[in-house]
Amino acid sequence: MNIQLFETQEWEKSTFDAVAQKHELSFDKAPLTVDTAEAHSDAEVISVFIHSDLGETTLKQLPNLRCIATRSTGFDHIDVEYCTQHGIHVANVPSYGENTVASHTIGLLLNIAHRISDGIERTRKGDYSNQGLRGFDVVGKTLGVVGASGNIGRHVIRMARGIGMEVLGQDIQEDADFAKAAGFTYVDLESLCAASDVVSIHVPYSEQTHHLISEKVFAQMREGVVFLNTSRGPVVDERALLKALADHKVVAAGLDVISAEPEIREEAELLHTVLETEEKWGTLLTNETLLQLRNVYVTPHNAFNTEEAIRRILDCTLENIQSFLKGEPQHLVNKCDA
Prior knowledge:
- 38% of the residues lie in helices and 15% in strands.
- The model is unreliable at 264-278 (pLDDT under 50).
- It is α/β, with parallel strands linked by helices.
- The chain has helices at residues 17-20, 56-59, 80-85, 98-114, 116-124, 151-162, 176-182, 189-195, 215-220, 238-246, 261-265, 267-276, 278-292, 307-325, and strands at residues 2-6, 24-28, 45-48, 67-70, 89-91, 142-146, 166-170, 185-186, 198-201, 225-229, 250-255, 296-298.
- Helix 12 (267-276) crosses helix 13.
- It is globular and about 60 Å long.
């Protein structure tokens, strides 16, 4: 079977040696996109990361495709409906970096609270003054976790409680036993916003969560709130976030994700996207503005990126591919008859 892996690095290849012994296997450093798909039309199984574009136009150029093994938990870069209709199995990595993303989230908060990166930048320039670098204690502050029942949200709550924070949680599915054990209270989103000193987002991206954090939701937050997002960029209406920052409703933001990540990564793609639609042009301008603000701390979708988490991703992806080849696909996000 023809198996092609995209967005791979040299050191990752050895993970798939067992598959290479019996199947045709190839690797590509670049993402799979609508512009490159035609060259890979013989692929029967592909593995991608989040920067590949597996929309309908791309998938139509892969007539032999039977399985997609994404090396991520999220699958919003894949047209799952198209895959289901055309008998293409889609498998994800359901669990690999809950504690990893959670610790990054707490790291962003502590960076903001103690002005850590600002202080490092200053001392590197030879200025050892701490003037203007006064921060705030997190102990006793209230953290509002949107998506409290999810795996990442749970880890964030445990860590926040461990450093002395009070916690409020919101989720469409409440777990009373976990709330009691972890020492927090479930409330609705409006109540969470009104009572939290810090609001952290941990929900998957879908049509239902698109711009979940809207101008209305920012208006419900208390003055001087710290806002954190390590889930997906489009969960937040970033123009509303900019307005909240300008109005000092949000005093600082820590973001590991923004909507225009792929376009910002590649200048050529940025130009292509700018010319494509007015909506994307607006998103790019908003994201570029966020990147320049001194009270906004953006990391490059790096929260998952530890040695241990990457190993878990690769091992699970290998298992997903091997399971499909055996006719026993696992970790599927869709159901198809083929």
